[in-house]
Specification:
The chain has helices spanning 2-28, 47-50, 56-69, 121-124, 152-159, 162-165, 246-256, 268-273, 279-313, 315-323, 328-335, and strands at residues 38-44, 74-80, 92-97, 111-117, 129-132, 147-151, 169-174, 179-180, 188-194, 209-213, 221-228, 263-267. By secondary structure, it is α+β, with helices and mostly antiparallel strands. A six-stranded mixed barrel has the order 3-4-10-6-9-7. It has a four-stranded antiparallel beta sheet with strand order 2-11-1-12. Helix 1 (2-28) runs antiparallel to helix 9 (279-313). The protein starts with a helix and ends with a helix.
Length: 336
């Protein structure tokens, strides 16, 4: 019984250790952007609140970004349609470089993550520019031809090198029949290539990412990205905790539009720890650790009871050994 208890305790403790090591490895995985010092929250307009004024969300987010950027301690305020590592099926689209033959099925790598972003998002999240340029509010407007930025994975998959992708055009498709949507969404031009970001930390991304500018695409709901100002060396200041910006950000949103709440607010680092790829491993790691320690404690009680019974039965034997000249340490070694 004691042997079985020890074996089960060791199995639980080893499993807990492996789970915790996996969670630690995921925490150390670089997601392709810098989550340190970043606060994110989600806000937007329900369809019923927008009414006939379809430009109302764009004006709201324009004013909101201006006021958020003016908050003390904020280095930059940006937005994107979905938070980084938010692997949301609703943001998946189908694109193909113009002129390439269409495959017979959707399973041939055409799926991409669509993200509508502001031009300063890449600097706010420290996503590197590999080729071309970023979005420019003066050049990329609603009345100008559509442009996108693709990640390195998309560029290398379809064009070989990031620089080769610049100037190429992409067509959008929809449905199982791969119908082109040129009338609704004309082809767009690739103006830049940025580094890859990971939407899941525990596995390679199945789909690359394409970014469109908020000036040309309207989203009713957006994720706001606030990067706190980095203290300069020697000025004596410490880095601001992003969580301290939650209440000021909530007040700003209410000031811009009193009926609009915020939700999913919190530091981006915490959001990564709560993501579906990290949280289960941390939870089950701690759970297995508790069960393993309880089992180990019960096994220790069993060992103690067994040893106490064994020693009690051998008291006379130990007395005889001591009388014949055995040293106390030899008796202890015998028992151990």
């Amino acid at each position: 019984l004691v042997i079985a208890q020890i074996a089960l305790a060791l199995v639980l403790l080893v499993g807990a250790g492996l789970m915790m090591r996996s969670a630690l490895a995921l925490r150390q995985t670089r997601p392709g952007f810098s989550p340190e010092g970043v606060l994110t929250f989600r806000t937007g307009f329900p369809v019923g609140l927008v009414g006939e004024d379809r430009d109302l969300p764009a004006r709201f987010f324009e004013r909101l970004l201006e006021k958020l950027a003016a908050l003390p301690g904020v280095e930059s305020a940006a937005l994107m349609s979905w938070r980084p590592t938010h692997d949301d099926a609703g943001s998946i689209g189908i694109v193909l470089p113009e002129g390439q033959p269409r495959p017979a099925s959707l399973a041939d790598g055409l799926m991409v993550h669509n993200r509508v972003v502001s031009g300063n998002l890449f600097s706010a999240l420290r996503i590197p520019l590999l080729a071309g340029r970023l979005f420019d509010d003066t050049l990329d407007r609603k009345d100008t031809p559509g442009v996108v930025i693709v990640d390195e994975a998309f560029a290398r998959r379809h064009f070989g090198e990031p620089a080769v992708a610049l100037g190429r055009r992409l067509e959008r498709y929809e449905g199982e029949e791969m119908k082109p949507t040129a009338e609704k969404h004309p082809p767009v031009e690739i103006i830049g290539v940025v580094g890859n970001i990971r939407h899941r930390l525990d596995q390679p991304d199945k789909h690359p990412t394409i970014y469109a500018t908020r000036r040309q695409w309207t989203e009713f709901f957006q994720t706001i990205v606030l990067r706190v100002a980095t203290p300069q060396p020697g000025d004596g200041n410490t880095a601001l905790d992003p969580a301290l910006l939650i209440e000021p950000a909530r007040d700003v949103v209410s000031a811009v539009h009193a009926e609009i709440p915020i939700y999913e607010e919190g530091p981006l680092e915490d959001a990564l720890l709560r993501s579906g790829s990290v949280w289960p491993r941390r939870f089950f790691g701690y759970l297995f650790m508790v069960f393993g320690l309880v089992a180990l404690f019960l096994a220790c009680i069993g060992i103690y009871g067994l040893m106490a019974y064994n020693v009690t039965q051998r008291v006379q034997e130990f007395g005889v050994r001591l009388a014949l000249g055995a040293q106390p340490r030899e008796i202890i070694q015998l028992v151990v």
